[in-house]
Design a protein that fits this description.
Blueprint: H1 6-17, H2 19-22, E1 29-34, H3 42-57, E2 62-67, H4 78-83, E3 89-90, H5 117-125, H6 127-135, E4 141-156, E5 170-173, H7 177-185, E6 189-192, H8 195-204, E7 209-212, H9 214-219, E8 228-244, H10 245-250, H11 253-288, E9 292-294, H12 298-307, H13 309-319, H14 321-331
Parallel strand pairs: 1-2, 1-3, 5-6, 5-7, 8-9
Antiparallel strand pairs: 3-8, 4-7, 4-8
Length: 334
Amino acid sequence: MNDANPLRRRCLQALVCAPWVRTASARPLVLRLSHVVKEATPKGVALQQFAQQLDAVSKGRMQVQIFANARLYSDLDEMQALQLGAVDMLAPSLSKFGRIGFPEFELFDLPFLFETHAQVHRTMQGRVGQALLAALQRQRLVGLGYLDNGFKHMSANRALLEPQDFVGQRMRVQGSRVIAHQMRVLGAQPVELDFAQTRRALALGVVDGTENPVSNFWTQQMHEAQTDLSLTRHGYLGYCLVVHQRFWQHLQPQQRGWMQQALRVALDWGNAMAQQQNERDLAALRATGATRIHHPGDRQREQLRQALQPVYEGLAQRIGGQWVQAMLKDRGKP
């Protein structure tokens, strides 16, 4: 191959070797699933549950090979790898769909949009959530469902409880214009970094802080590089299970049915345990005594909420105010 793009070259080589490309009758059919977080995170264990369920319902005829912790592809290249066929399935954060032509997915990044997991799930199962999955067809992607991690909190080497606390801080963000706007509104400097590089960047002082659910903070050992964690619950982090249309259409109807059945069980199970896992990880973090844990009061949360209203206005200007209004309607009350 003479392709000058190293990632594309790797992807094309992997596509040639894909078992579903080589032969439709290969047994078992092995799905390659890549993700960027540790196995012990809510996403990691839910995907392991999916692998177990698929093996069980297909009686071993379909299996899943999981490449966790960015072992195969990183934050910045996994979507291209899926589109080129180098992997069969991903579970990217919802933020990542914005940079491949679906800015509506960044609705989930709006600060202080959700107060409860029930609101999140109503939105995902409602008109907006289902319309977003259907829209993926524009890029020949098939959205199979949503998966929780949980609510995000702010970390740094200082407490981040009020808008003025963020001024001048360099904050790692994932590739979302909504999240970057959020940091700029607070007076911080957003720095987009691959998730796998974040722990090292914090330790070296390349960035001052970041936002994460507790499970990511704990499993990536960020407490060793951050002195303070502020439990702001300012945003939500979730994922979308996605495959390429080419792969999905190649499957037999029975195989698609097995996958959907296994996913229903795994996603229900994963969403039920995600909050529990974040709570366990918070208890483990407290036990270390390595990080000061702060609880913003109602007044401080309201100050942050009010300061971040321009983020809603900015997204409405980009994608249309009707999307934001529909999201708020689907969300409902806590």
